[in-house]
């Protein structure tokens, strides 16, 4: 197992940690949104990087990577999705329901108590996927609600979900967005935009504060994993199961 210093040095934009840091640079995040949506954005404001939304203690809280709002109050949630995770209990992929839950809790957080529903701003939930979820080859899959009886009718709730497929092969995307895909996939710098990203990552890796932050985060995660394993063993022993043997066989 590589040590944390080596692991940090080898991080790419596919890492949640690096992705959040890079997208926290306004010029990069703003340009990516402009290239994806083919619009001009005057400015963006960060609501909070890695925001945790937990409506109450009985609900399943989520941690969002990047949330920004533009000058027209449109809100964007950007997420890096490296693995196409499947629930082994249900044998179903979790991404569709995950996007639904993210949208619901983002709306919950955006509307204050007593405010009318029509004050909900337009939202975009954007997953940057390092896989083709639908296996259709599209660079981008964009979803809005439409009437099944008349597909020309769109529900004007101003909620959009986008799955970006960095492994895509067809569709109409800009040169900079395609270069971003190539950079995510293969760490290839082909445009000024990806050079900005690559330079930013190089700068981050030279920052001792960033490296220390990563080390502390990894240490906390390791402690949490160890605690989880210990709790699992305690439960296994209480139920008369040899958890250690099961782990060894796996």
* Rg from alpha-carbon coordinates: 20 Å
The proportion of residues in beta strands is 15-25%
For the report, how would you describe the main beta sheet?
Answer: 6 strands, mixed
Order of helices and strands: HHHEEEEEEEHEEEHHHH
Quaternary assembly: single chain
Describe this structure in words.
With 250 residues, this protein is α+β, with helices and mostly antiparallel strands. It contains 8 helices and 10 strands. The strands form 3 sheets. It has a 6-stranded mixed sheet. A hairpin with a 4-residue loop joins strand 4 (66-70) and strand 5 (75-81). The protein is globular and about 55 Å long. The two termini are 18 Å apart.
Keywords:
250 residues; alpha+beta; two-stranded antiparallel ribbon; 8 helices; 43% helix; disordered C terminus
Secondary-structure blueprint of this entry?
Blueprint: H1 4-9, H2 16-23, H3 26-37, E1 44-46, E2 51-53, E3 62-64, E4 66-70, E5 75-81, E6 86-87, E7 92-93, H4 95-110, E8 123-129, E9 140-143, E10 159-165, H5 175-186, H6 192-206, H7 208-238, H8 243-249
Parallel strand pairs: 5-8, 8-10
Antiparallel strand pairs: 1-4, 2-3, 4-5, 6-7, 9-10
Q: Outline of this structure?
A:
The protein is of the alpha+beta class and 250 residues long. 43% of the residues lie in helices and 17% in strands.
């Amino acid at each position: 197992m590589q040590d944390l210093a080596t692991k940090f040095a080898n991080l790419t934009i596919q890492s949640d940690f690096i992705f959040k840091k890079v997208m926290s640079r306004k010029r990069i995040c703003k340009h990516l949104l402009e290239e994806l949506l083919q619009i001009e954005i005057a400015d963006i404001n960060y609501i909070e990087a890695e925001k945790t939304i937990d409506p109450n203690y009985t609900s399943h809280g989520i941690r969002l990577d990047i949330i920004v709002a533009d000058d027209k109050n449109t809100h964007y949630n950007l997420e890096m999705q490296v693995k196409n995770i499947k629930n082994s209990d249900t044998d179903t992929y979790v991404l569709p329901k995950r996007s639904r839950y993210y949208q619901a809790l983002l709306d919950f957080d955006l509307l204050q108590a007593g405010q009318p529903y029509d004050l909900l701003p337009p939202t975009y939930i954007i997953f940057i996927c390092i896989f083709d979820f639908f296996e259709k080859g599209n660079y981008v899959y964009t979803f809005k609600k439409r009437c099944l009886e008349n597909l020309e009718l769109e529900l004007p709730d101003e909620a959009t979900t986008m799955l970006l497929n960095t492994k895509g092969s067809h569709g109409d995307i800009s040169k900079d967005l395609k270069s971003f895909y190539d950079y995510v996939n293969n760490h290839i710098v082909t445009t000024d935009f990806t050079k900005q990203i690559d330079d930013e990552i190089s700068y981050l890796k030279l920052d001792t504060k960033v490296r220390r932050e990563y080390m502390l985060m990894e240490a906390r995660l390791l402690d949490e994993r160890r605690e989880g394993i210990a709790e699992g063993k305690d439960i296994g022993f209480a139920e008369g199961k040899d958890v250690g043997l099961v782990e060894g066989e796996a």
